[in-house]
Amino acid sequence: MAFRDTKSKIIIKTPEQIQGIRESSVLAAQTLKEVAPFVQPGVSTEFLNKICAQFMQDHKAVPATLGYHGYPKETCISVNDVVCHGIPGPYELREGDIVNIDVTTILNGYYGDTSSMFMVGEVSDHAQKLVAVTKECLAIGIRECFIGNPLNNIGYQINKYATSFGYSTVYEFCGHGVGLKFHEEPEVSHIADKNTGPILAPGMIFTIEPMINAGKARCKVDKKDNWTARTIDGRLSAQFEHTICVTKDKPFVLTDINGEFEIPESVF
Ligand code: MF3
Ligand code: CO
Ligand code: CO
What we know:
The protein is an alpha+beta fold. Helices cover 24% and strands 23% of the residues. It is globular. α1 packs across α2 (45-58) and α3 (125-143) runs antiparallel to α4 (153-163). One cobalt (II) ion (CO) is lined by residues 113, 176, 207, 209, 241.
């Protein structure tokens, strides 16, 4: 649709909704903190999923992924060349693996979505570098979350940074509006044209979740499970994700519980 007004479809959340989404986002982040010490050689991804599922249940949250379009597990766990939507299973982690764990909680009806990379034992320098650059890509995207900025400047800056290291940015999966549903408007592309897209306004909440590949950008989805997305060339992929609320001041990183980003005084 050439003349679709995407702007009008982005929900501006109320202060009450933002509070609810913040609480869910904190719980999602706490789930990642809970599972972190278990990411060790010999541990199966299914076991890591169980730790996350139990933590969510203990805190009265529902895992948003379970049953979502038929997805079978409470988290996504993506190892090495898996870009995203890895299904936890019997695979046992090995020294040198890089692992993304992606948690989406529903708490009191509100959604929080975050993911982080974990390194298993000693990891090669090139894998460490990919993970560090991908983490910085997310921070760069977050810095673009201010009033009046066109949304696509997020993806423009992320891709510019990633490609400066010879990496490529995945374009087949995007960030998304989140909060009242799992996936809302807008779609947040991590590779985009400068100064395009809807204009950011206070109360907008969406994820930024760059997937950065060491080699080619293209992905292929596993034919057997219809979920696991791998890099086309078998090379490594990394991803970090936060849920962010645009405010009149600095961005409010709702899934940050480590004080990596400053908390703004108010949203509106
Ligand atoms: N949590 C993922 C995201 O960041 C989505 C997973 S959808 C699933 O958007 F169905 F694979 F679980
Ligand atoms: Co997401
Ligand atoms: Co996610």
